[in-house]
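Bench notes, afternoon.
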Amino acid sequence: MPTPSSQGSSCSFNGQTLGRMTRFRVSPGAAVFVEKTNITSEVVGSGANARIVKTYDCVAIDPGTVEVTLYGCPPYTNAQIGSRGTVSVSFEGGSLSRPAYLETFDVTGSVGEFLVGQAVFKLTGEGQ
């Protein structure tokens, strides 16, 4: 079975195509922890070398992000940061379409190089 390629991948937000995408990254989520260390927690060492072992609980799951890199400037304005919609990424062998917020975008330029833009979308957690 051939390895899928990201060549020809595309991304849109609320139906608006982002342009010529060069890279994308889908982070499916992460655990959110809260520290619950207290005076009854385990202690290692003694005297001046005594340390309390921190303890944690998982209290939530962060739904993740979609990061897209493209040639040129992302088609957004500052007023659109925080807007909610559907982010869709299509690639060879699959696709992803989820409710998300436009978290941020930027553009980087270097002399003699193409402008490179990036947009980051925060998944809402709905429809996971």
